[in-house]
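fyi for ur records
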Amino acid sequence: MADLSQLSIETIQALASQRVGRQLGFVDGASVEPLSEATFNDVSPIDGKLLCQVANCGNEDVDRAVRSARQAFEDRRWSGLAPRERKKILLKFADLIERQSFELAVLECRDMGMPITIAMNMNLPAAVESIRWHAEAADKVYDEIAPTGDSALALVMREPLGVIAAIVPWNFPLMIAAWKLGPALAAGNSVILKPAEQSPLTALRLGALALEAGIPSGVLNVLPGLGEVTGKALALHKDVDAIAFTGSTEVGKLLLHYSSRSNMKRVSLECGGKTPNIVLSDAPDLDVAARAAAFGIFNNQGQVCNAGSRLLVHRDIHDAFLEKVTSVARSLKVGNPLDPTSQLGTLVDGKQLTRVEHYVDIGQKEGAMLITGGKRVDIDKAGFYFEPTIFDQVSNDMTIAREEIFGPVLSTLTFADVGEAISIANDSPYGLGAALWTSDLNTAHKAAKGLRAGTVFVNAFGGVDMTVPFGGFKQSGNGRDRSLHALEKVTDIKTTWINLS
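which gave:
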């Protein structure tokens, strides 16, 4: 992995200035023109300028990719390999991604606006780790023998589902793609990767890298295109066995509907969040908690599904704590994401900027107090930059406390005791994550049990490790990324009953 500290802004900008050519789909081991010859524009949020034109794959392209993936699965060119052989190839795939990590990180910054520090220190390492971790798991996950007695032998085995459509979002394009690809490929499936139209470029590089690593043609196909066309066609296709999706709750519900209209394909969803970050009066270190609260919402410009967008503070420490969080927010540098000193980059596009501005306006109209931020930032008179924004005096029935904004906007609420904090935290359609700050171990245990969330952080906010599952309760979705639990959504269980009597 390239060492960012050894790279000058000039080196980064030189790479960033390179022209990006027209991008095609990747099907059956080759770059292919869309059958309709349609394209869409990929615009960089850094300056609003055109990066390149990208193939806009339609229904016929989806059919072609599904046929390729199905043939690859049925002839067992990948699923028929011994798990240790798939492991070797996937490890090489991870090595190739790591070798090109700096170039991929810069491309990710240009495509969706994340700071280069996040791209290099979080996004790329996590992508590489996901492929490696699941590769290593390929020949270490055992099947079962049921305790049936002497008259029968019952073998319980996990088998790959077949053709998986992985539909991934624009906020962490490469990392989340790898979260889907790692377990799906390790288990022996064929995959069609559909990147978000706002950030398709690094996903399209994966097809060629997979082929170079030795993954057979047809096993990994990449289809760029609009969600309402390409994504919908994949979800409705009767020869796709499963959808692995990360994105909005609205689209997640559509995918469930499309599944019911087609072949009842399995649908795993990691959707929206409105994560509560609860700070009790006995929090062990308010300075640490304040910094974590600020970065928990402003990281990647708030474009994080698990962003700590609701800050719940005990009334006894509310004023002092909010002052600390506000101080951190005002110190953060918003700037060109290719500048290693920038702590916040850009929102992904003009539509997202307008969305954030709209919610800030709603918050003020509904009576929340704007403490800091709330405005667009002018960086070289271009791009889609927005200030770190904090609201106080927010009630949990306000729009900004209930709806996912997906931007650098923090809502602050107060509570009187732990019971009230848990009640407020759980009063949400989402349940992706939660956090709690306390010095009392008993309180921590009881509160963690009471919080309806897929992950509960105690005296921390965030913590990404491949050994722990990630996913949510309620309308934050179902199924899990990361850990061995990720295999559950891309495999099925088969029992073979052998009569021994």
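The longest strand covers residues 152-160. thats all i got for now
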